[in-house]
């Protein structure tokens, strides 16, 4: 699979748009998936959150990719698994 064309406006993984990719971003994604009406992500946050197989939409895999990055199991986002 070819590498995706990077979008300069996307900070992969920064779902809460605080400038840092951390477990807080994974939590924000899980909360949004569980109850999107209560735990909304901004438009930019939604773009940033799609960090595992970008273009596939936001799923638990995106939050897990952030957790892998935090645990140093992967070196960078986006994570391409397909």
Structure notes:
The protein is mainly α and 82 residues long. The chain is built from 3 helices and no strands. It has helices at 23-34, 43-49, 60-70. Helix 1 runs antiparallel to helix 3. The protein is globular, with a radius of gyration of 12 Å. The termini are close together.
List keywords for this structure.
37% helix, mainly alpha, 82 residues, single chain, globular
List the SSEs and their pairings.
Elements: H1 23-34, H2 43-49, H3 60-70
Helix pairs in contact: 1-3
Helicity level, as a percent range?
A: 25-40%
Radius of gyration over all CA atoms, rounded: 12 Å
Q: Write the element-wise H/E pattern from the N-terminal end onward.
A: HHH
Number of strands: 0
The number of helices is 3
Main structural class: mainly alpha
Stretches with pLDDT under 50, minimum 5 residues: none
What's the overall average pLDDT, rounded? 94
- The percent range for strand residues is under 5%
What global shape is seen? globular
Q: How far apart are the first and last residues' alpha carbons, in Å?
A: 7 Å
* Main sheet: strands, sense, barrel: none
A few lines on this structure:
The chain is mostly helical.
């Amino acid at each position: 699979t070819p590498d995706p064309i990077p979008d300069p406006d996307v900070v992969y993984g920064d779902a809460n748009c605080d400038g840092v990719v951390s477990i807080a971003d994974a939590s924000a994604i899980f909360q949004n998936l569980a109850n999107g009406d209560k735990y909304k992500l901004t438009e930019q946050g939604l773009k940033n959150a799609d960090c595992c197989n970008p273009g596939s939409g936001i799923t638990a895999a995106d939050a897990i990719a952030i957790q892998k990055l935090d645990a140093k199991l992967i070196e960078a986002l986006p994570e391409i698994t397909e």
